[in-house]
Automatic annotation (TrEMBL):
Superkingdom, taxonomy of origin: Bacteria
Keywords: ATP-binding, Isomerase, Kinase, Lyase, Metal-binding, Multifunctional enzyme, NAD, NADP, Nucleotide-binding, Potassium, Transferase
Name of the protein: Bifunctional NAD(P)H-hydrate repair enzyme
Domain annotation YjeF C-terminal: ranges: 223-490
Binding-site positions, AMP: 403-407, 432
Amino-acid positions noted as binding K(+) in the UniProt annotation, renumbered to this chain: 72, 130, 164
Metal-binding as UniProt keyword: yes
Residues annotated to bind (6S)-NADPHX: 71-75, 134-140, 161, 258, 312, 361, 433
Note on cofactor: Binds 1 potassium ion per subunit.
Pfam families with a match to the protein in the record: Carb_kinase, YjeF_N
GO BP: metabolite repair; nicotinamide nucleotide metabolic process
Role summary: Bifunctional enzyme that catalyzes the epimerization of the S- and R-forms of NAD(P)HX and the dehydration of the S-form of NAD(P)HX at the expense of ADP, which is converted to AMP. This allows the repair of both epimers of NAD(P)HX, a damaged form of NAD(P)H that is a result of enzymatic or heat-dependent hydration.
Residues in YjeF N-terminal domain copies: 23-218
Length: 492
């Protein structure tokens, strides 16, 4: 089978995202060492170059700047001035004319651009620059700018640094926001560009370096090369035990399928063997003869380097979870085990010395949040992904992989990762069971929970894309079966 993924670029570095506070501190240090306006010119030059690349030709194109009164508007006005000097018909719509960025506006006018008060220019433009607000904004778009969030447009919208109305630190969107086709961000990614719903508003994100000296990023998205470097490779001396044994406590008389799918994921996640315990032993062996099965629960199941507990676990989930948590192996809790954990609260994890990885979808995350007294629902969790995942990680003292349109992994130490490979086709019954098995298998090979979770999410997303091809419904088993191909595409 040919894997379409093998054509993906391999050298793209880790996408790092910094908070507004970190960007501000780096900006202040650099600005103190450079002549006034240097950073804005670097930003405007990169922005103008991206815009020029999006236009069939710059000369004669209609470019509209939506300009707020901060430096974000300044960047947009200076970039439009550069395009006007190349013959573009550039206009600026000033949202608060009295407070417009004076130097940027002067540059635009000097280059032959003009100011317009006609909101209809938005729909006629060949390209719109969203310079309403960047990292200095807060809350939803103000009334003067809000109508542009829903207006029809002809040409692409290019967001300057951040789509206006998207929270740069979290990706939360609390009201109207500009929907961009491309976002040109400066110095670093902002977390809000990598996490839905903000990521969806950002479109394709293009980073323009401006020379900021930044600390380690609190949020990152692994790329191909990062994942390839983390994948376990068996050594010459490896046998199945040295490669790691993953235990899967899953499935019930009512849900035997979840066991099959979790084992299918676990068999393809790098561990040397899969040890299954639960009510679906017969089905598991029939479908996966390579699995070891045992009647005993996690407490007496034999050698296991990481446990996966909960998919389709039914009534047995609490007992299996308690037994697995009593071992000194890493434990991944999913599905019914998460429901039990939400009911019993974080005290159940107290005293663990090995890592715990929780893999909730938004509904299960809401149940876990209830376990710490935060009563909410799935939609609210999905709207506040980073915050929800971080809160759960901190309060449960566990790594949390929050599944969804952007999967977010949060570590109790505060680091977070977002997964760039997701696809809507992954939203299929049993897909989460495969992911749980896969992530547990990576844990058993010795990866830490943050790496195991983010590598699993990456592989799972690529496998979903590979299985769906140019676009077709897929089953959870299709995802599992595509895993060896995408693994090869990363290492080949
Ligand atoms: N960091 C860097 O290294 C570099 C940063 N650069 C650029 O600077 C940008 C940051 O500029 P900034 O600090 O001037 O803030 P900015 O985003 O323009 O917003 C302030 C304005 O927004 C308004 N406003 C607030 N909320 C709003 C809302 N909800 N809806 C509507 N309006 C709202 C607020 O209004 P006010 O409260 O004053 O009435 C004020 O007028 C950054 O994103 C990047 O583009 C580059 O030039 C190169 C180097
Ligand atoms: K903007």
């Amino acid at each position: 089978m040919t894997c379409t993924c093998s054509r993906l670029p391999k050298e793209i570095p880790l996408r790092q995202a910094h908070t507004v506070a970190q960007v501000r501190a780096a900006e202040a240090a650099l600005m103190a060492a450079l002549p006034d306006g240097t950073l804005m010119q670097r930003a405007a030059a990169g922005l103008a170059a991206t815009c020029a690349g999006l236009l069939p030709r710059v000369y004669g194109s209609r470019v509209l700047v939506l300009a707020g009164s901060g430096d974000n508007g300044g960047d947009a006005l200076f970039a439009a001035a550069r395009l006007a000097r190349r013959g573009a018909r550039a206009e600026a719509l000033l949202l608060d004319p009295a407070k417009a960025h004076a130097e940027g506006l002067a540059a635009l006018l000097a280059a032959g651009g003009r100011v317009t008060g006609d909101a209809g220019a938005f729909g006629r433009a060949d390209l719109v620059l969203d310079g309403i607000v960047g990292i200095g904004g807060s809350g939803p778009l103000r009334p003067a700018a809000a109508p542009f969030a829903t207006m029809a447009r002809r040409g692409p919208v290019v967001a300057v640094d951040v789509p206006s109305g998207v929270d740069p630190d979290t990706g939360e969107v609390s009201g109207p926001a500009l929907r961009a086709d491309v976002t040109v961000c400066f110095g670093t990614h902002k977390p809000g560009l990598l996490i839905d719903p903000g990521a969806e508003y950002a479109g394709v994100v293009h980073l323009v370096g401006i020379g900021l000296d930044l600390p380690p990023a609190p949020v990152a998205a692994l790329q191909h090369a990062d994942v390839a470097a983390l994948l376990p490779v068996p050594g010459a001396e490896s046998d199945k035990y040295r490669r790691g044994v993953v235990g899967v406590a899953a499935g019930s008389a009512r849900y035997p399928g979840a066991a099959l799918l979790a084992v299918a994921g676990a068999l393809r996640g790098g561990a040397g063997a899969v040890r299954y315990t639960g009510h679906a032993a017969e089905e598991v062996v029939r479908r996966h003869p390579e699995a070891l099965v045992t009647e005993a629960g996690p407490a007496r199941a034999g050698r296991v380097q990481a446990w996966v507990v909960g998919p389709g676990g039914g009534d047995g989930a609490e007992q299996a979870l308690r037994e697995a948590l009593d071992t000194d192996a890493p434990v991944l809790a999913d599905a019914d085990a998460l429901t039990e954990l939400g009911r019993l609260g974080p005290a159940l994890l107290a005293g663990r010395t090995a890592p715990t990885l929780l893999t909730p979808h938004a509904g299960e995350a809401a149940r876990l949040l209830a376990g710490i007294g935060e009563h909410t629902d799935a939609d609210t969790v999905a709207a506040h992904r980073l915050r929800s995942a971080r809160l759960l990680a901190a309060r449960y003292g566990a790594t949390v992989l929050l599944k969804g349109s952007t999967t977010v992994v949060a570590d109790p130490d505060g680091r977070a990762r977002t997964n760039p490979t997701g696809t809507g086709w992954l939203g299929t019954a049993g897909s989460g069971d495969v992911l749980a098995g896969l992530a547990g298998s990576l844990l058993a090979t010795g990866l830490g929970p943050l790496d195991a979770a983010s590598v699993a999410a990456y592989l799972h997303g690529l496998a979903g894309r590979h299985a769906a091809g140019t676009g077709a419904p897929i089953t959870a088993l299709d995802i599992a079966e595509a895993l060896p191909s995408v693994w090869r595409s990363l290492t080949g």
